[in-house]
Design brief:
By secondary structure, the chain is mainly alpha-helical. The chain is 61% helix and 5% strand. Helix 4 packs antiparallel against helix 8.
Length: 612
């Protein structure tokens, strides 16, 4: 099995990124510095942080670099993440620092306790404090939510600043002043790091994008307000879209202006963004095969194998690595592999081209898919043994690929299999129909990835029953689909908006749906069509999509999903169906006929739909 965690083996070949990040982090000219390593969940950000740490730890001792790991998610339950991050960093510095400066970090920890009380007292003025301390107006601007009341807001902010000045600066001593406490803390922190026995302090912050929006902002504020001083470098691994979402939620756009500050805010905090590119289809194909090799080699052997791959520049070739090249490299290095390895490599090689694009260039999704295949393969050996009843691993893998491509088509194939007499007639007719471009009952199979899948299937898919394979994957036939692990954040966001949209809001919501990319749009429709056929989708939602000219490609699929449902049509939805009928009467006639045959609609309702 392939564990879903950060790896200390560079199977993604991120070393060039790690070397660049390390080189910049060690350069005194750039400090203080905050580096953002951006990428989607599962893209390998934690692995890249591991490689950076390895680079730092392998450097000569005379560099005197202190490398500290902080997992932001660990502070999710704390009342104030700023304080928690500061305390965690100071505690680790106290442990790692030379003896002569340990006491300085202890004193700073005491100051944090005092500051914790002060921050709680003036928590609502935090944006103003940040603006005063940094000379940066953005936090103050963020506090104004409505352009119509901005005058009152400025007056309130001015009064708050004056009150803050009177109570914490004029009347209080420097020790009691929150603003001065920030300045004094930064100064003392910088002095503590100024010791000649400390070279650089490089702080690796992971899992920030797993935190709640408020925690994300608090962590970024802690870095900017308190900790970003000479000799410090913060390397933050996160999905920048999640950070932008947190900023928008904390500081919504000013109504009526269209002004949004999330990108400017990130630029203020993070000086050097480095985005991990999504793996190409070719990269995913290579990655899948390398994961198979990893599973069958010892750690040291696999590292040597990767070194050859890197040295020979196989990754930058126009075509993926071939299985023959893999066997050649293993043979050259006198590594003997067994039959199980050869079988697994052959099966994965046969499906990698079809599945690669559906894995969204995400290493985590690649691991999850292979883990599912290996688990099912082992279950097949337990259930059906190794004799004549042995399961064909390629058929099993192809079915898992189909489920990944389209859960609805997977279920449809199972339904066709249940009607098997002398052959799977529906599948056979569908496969033959793909050779022409005419619209027919199999239009939902006419997507590029599905066409490639169908054409890759052997004749056994319609000449033999597939009962044993559907038995092995029976959890995919029941209950809700595993959408969360397969969908992008954009798709999840749109689905949430659609699910919460009231009739008056649905037009705006579908406008947002129209603007996303084609792949995400198809993923959203896969969910909506399933809900529609199950009778769980509100008609006004699917009806709004049906009548949109820009979404006309989905009309046939919507009509087919409506025909499959078994829930009675409601008179409350007549207006929706009438609108759909006016847009495409031919398709809606088919829907109405199917409902009439199933006694799901009354004649009066049909008359109302057609004639109003």
């Amino acid at each position: 099995m392939w564990l879903d965690n950060a790896s200390d083996i560079d199977i993604l070949f991120y070393k060039p990124y790690a070397d660049i990040v390390t080189e910049i982090a060690e350069d005194d000219e750039y400090k203080p510095l905050t580096i953002g390593i951006f990428g989607e969940w599962g893209a390998g950000k934690s692995t890249l942080l591991n490689l950076v740490r390895q680079n730092i730890e392998s450097q000569p001792q005379d560099k005197k670099t202190i490398c500290i790991d902080i997992n932001a998610w660990a502070f999710e339950g704390y009342e104030d993440a700023k304080i928690a991050v500061m305390q965690a960093l100071l505690q680790k510095l106290e442990e790692s620092a030379p003896n002569q400066v340990k006491s300085k970090f202890k004193d700073l920890l005491k100051r944090v306790d005092v500051f914790k009380l002060a921050m709680k007292t003036v928590g609502t003025a935090a944006p103003i404090i940040a603006g005063l301390t940094l000379g940066n107006p953005l936090p103050i601007m963020f506090s104004f939510n409505n352009i119509e009341t901005i005058g009152d807001d400025i007056k309130k902010a001015t009064e708050a600043i004056q009150s803050f000045h009177d109570n914490y600066i004029t009347k209080g001593t420097d020790e009691q002043s929150v603003v001065n406490s920030i300045r004094v803390f930064r100064s003392e922190f910088e002095k503590a790091l100024d010791d000649k026995e400390i070279g650089n302090v490089i702080v690796l912050i992971d899992d920030l994008d797993r935190c709640q929006p408020d925690r994300i902002i608090e962590t970024l504020e802690a870095i900017k307000l308190f900790l970003s001083v000479r000799k410090t470098v913060f390397i933050i691994a996160a999905d920048d879209k999640v950070i932008q979402y947190a900023i928008k939620k904390k500081y919504p756009p000013i109504e009526g202006t269209g002004v949004s500050f999330e990108k400017e805010y990130i630029e203020k905090i993070i000086q050097l963004p480095i985005t991990i590119p999504q793996l190409s289809s070719k990269d995913v194909e290579n990655y899948l095969l390398l994961l198979v090799v990893q599973q069958y080699l010892k750690k040291d052997e696999f590292k040597k194998f990767l070194e050859i791959i890197w040295k020979e520049k196989f990754l930058v070739n126009a075509t993926p690595i071939s299985t023959s090249k893999i066997h050649e490299l293993l043979s050259t290095n006198q590594v003997s592999m067994g039959k199980d390895f050869n079988d697994t490599l052959e099966v994965v090689d046969s499906i990698k081209g079809i599945i690669s694009r559906n894995l969204k260039g995400n290493p985590r999704q690649a691991k999850r898919f292979l883990n599912t295949y290996v688990t099912k393969k082992k279950l097949a050996s337990f259930y059906f043994g190794e004799g004549e009843e042995k399961a064909d691993n390629q058929i099993l893998a192809l079915l898992l690929v189909l489920y990944k491509l389209s859960p609805d088509r997977f279920r449809q194939l199972n339904e066709w299999n249940q009607h098997f007499l002398t052959e799977n007639e529906e599948f056979h007719r569908m496969k033959v129909s793909l050779d022409n471009d005419e619209a027919d009952e199999f239009s939902e199979w006419r997507k590029p990835d599905l066409i490639r899948w169908v054409k890759s299937t052997p004749d056994v898919f319609y000449t033999h029953r597939l009962d044993k394979y559907f038995y092995l994957t029976r959890e995919c036939l029941n209950g809700d689909l595993e959408y969360d692990s397969n969908l992008s954040e954009e798709v999840k966001k749109i689905l949430e908006e659609i699910g919460n949209a009231k009739p008056a809001q649905i037009s705006k919501t579908i406008n947002n749906f129209e603007s996303i990319n084609a792949k995400d749009k198809n993923d959203v429709m896969e969910v909506l069509l399933k809900r529609t056929s199950d009778g769980e989708m509100e008609p006004y939602i699917i009806g709004e999509i049906f009548v949109r000219d820009q979404l006309s490609a989905y009309r046939t699929q919507i009509a087919n999903a409506m025909m499959r449902r078994t829930k009675n049509a409601s008179i409350a939805d007549i207006a929706v169906y009438k609108r759909m009928y006016q847009k495409d009467s031919d398709l809606m006639e088919k829907v109405i006929d199917a409902w009439k045959n199933g006694s799901l609609i009354q004649d009066k309702m049909i008359e109302m739909i057609k004639k109003g």
